[in-house]
Amino acid sequence: MRRFSLWLRGRPIVADSILAAVLMLIDIAGVGDERHKAVYLVFSVILPLPLVLRRVYPRAMAAVLLVLSVVNTIVGHLVDAGATDHISLIGVGVMLYTLVAYVGRREGLIYLAFLAFDLVLSVALLDEPTGVDLAMVGLIYALCWTLAEFNGARHAYDAEVAARLAVADYDRERRAHDAVAAERTRIARELHDVVAHAVSVIIVQADGAKYALRADPDTAERALATIAGTGRDALRELRRTVALLRTEHAPELLPQHGSAGIAKVAQMMREAGVAVDLELRGELDDIAPELSLGVHRIVQESLTNTLRHAGIEPKAVVRVHRHETDILVEVTDSGGVPAHVNPVTGIAGGGMGLVGMRERVAVLGGTLHAGRLDDGRWQVRAELPLHVEAD
């Protein structure tokens, strides 16, 4: 049963079709007590139909069901059939719940006002529902609204948790990518050291062997042996290093740079609860890869710090402007909880985020300022020169 419930959760149309079918069958089962059976059967069939798409098109289906309910009341008055379909009350209650839970309270209040008009019309044309029925209707609507508020809050909480988990996953992938990049940098340094050392030794020994070849064959032989040994050792180290370089990491760990990557980070932070206002100017997709990565990381780390330290309802304004000679990256957030000063680094903040940003900006030849503004907001501002221009 639980497995079937989970299966239905991912297929809203199927679940709502079952609900509409159940209401339709219950309504049809009561046809024997009605004077105008044909009218009753028609509305028994069409009234539950909007419920099938209530979660796909909530506003449109709510309007359709309301119109059908009003038409049902008018037709009941014209044919003198009375209230020909009482099961529609459940349908409009479900629609009220849908609007409040999946769209918003404003739409729910508007819909509730139209439902009140429908009730007034029923009383005026059909003398129904009675006072007791009206009290029952009000109770049903109140229960639907309350349930919608509860489920809406739960859905919002689940969405925020999912967004924060996505941020955590993205951050973990970013750290994994940085770890791989650092390891490859270390391997490149080792490769340089191995090659430089081996080539230097070989050149010196080869020059010595050339001069000693005729005058001192033993010395030339020792030099050649040294060259051979050095070459073998260098070849062994090169093979080990190349084997490490051939170990590829997963493609999804590669960050998405450029304007699309920045927009992705901003959207992810919005889903996690940070109100991000993004402003991009100039062409950001044709700059050097290392500069693009630097811009991406500064925005990402700054927004992550905003999420962690900017308190309740954090807000941030991200500006990335490309000028003729440099790129300006400016992230200003709402401030929130004051950051403490790290006693080791002397930089505000609890972790190594700002330290990493400063190191990255220094490598790129830029400048970085991070601190609190006079109005209490926190700002990270970096200026990165355009060292390499794309063709």
Structural overview:
It is a single chain. This protein starts with a helix and ends in a 6-residue tail after the last strand. It is 65% helix and 9% strand. A five-stranded mixed beta sheet has the order 1-2-3-5-4, covered by helices on one side. It is elongated, with a radius of gyration of 35 Å. The chain folds into three domains: 2-129, no CATH class; 171-252, Single alpha-helices involved in coiled-coils or other helix-helix interfaces, CATH 1.20.5; 256-385, 2-Layer Sandwich (Heat Shock Protein 90). Helix 10 runs antiparallel to helix 11 (353-363). By secondary structure, it is of the alpha+beta class. It has eleven helices and five strands; from the N terminus they run αααααααααβαββαββ. 25% of the residues are buried. It catalyses: ATP + protein L-histidine = ADP + protein N-phospho-L-histidine. Pfam families: DUF7134, HATPase_c, HisKA_3.
Q: What can be said about this structure in brief?
A:
It catalyses: ATP + protein L-histidine = ADP + protein N-phospho-L-histidine. By secondary structure, the protein is of the alpha+beta class.
